[in-house]
Amino acid sequence: MATKQYPGIIIFLFLLTGCGVVPRDGTPQFQPSASDNTPIASSVSSFDRVVNQLHSAHREWEGTPYRLGGTGMNGIDCSAFIQVVYRDFFGEDLPRNTREQLGEGSGVRRGSIRPGDLIFFRTSRNVLHVGIAMEDGDFLHASVSNGVMISNLSEPYWAGKYLGTRRVL
Fold first, then answer.
1. Which fold has domain 40-167?
2. Where are the alpha helices (DSSP H) in 96-149?
């Protein structure tokens, strides 16, 4: 009898943490800003500093396995990874789940993405994924299949799942 409770518990935990669930109507809760020239926060002085910090984060976390609801080096999900990187490398506080992160900052057009921007994907009907833009289309994220890694927006899988970008820094 106890085994019948596990699916409900798993669904409940998934909804509370992890790579976010889209609202029932399926509409993301953000609107692009009129300007893509939002200044970078004073704690981040330049493009190069952001890129260097992201490479440092990658070196520190590379290969850390994906774990839904995880928040540490033993396993981390995409939204917790973004939260940790922004806190530890940029001094910025972000919400814990992807759906709430989607409401942060201002919208950015795909052609204006710069390092440090949050890039969102719809990986299935009700599941969102988030990564942090680096340079040349690369982004840093906690991948379900390979853990913390760098991928590229031009890869067919990611290009087809792209949802939007938000500028927080």
1. endopeptidase fold (from Nostoc punctiforme) (3.90.1720)
2. 98-101
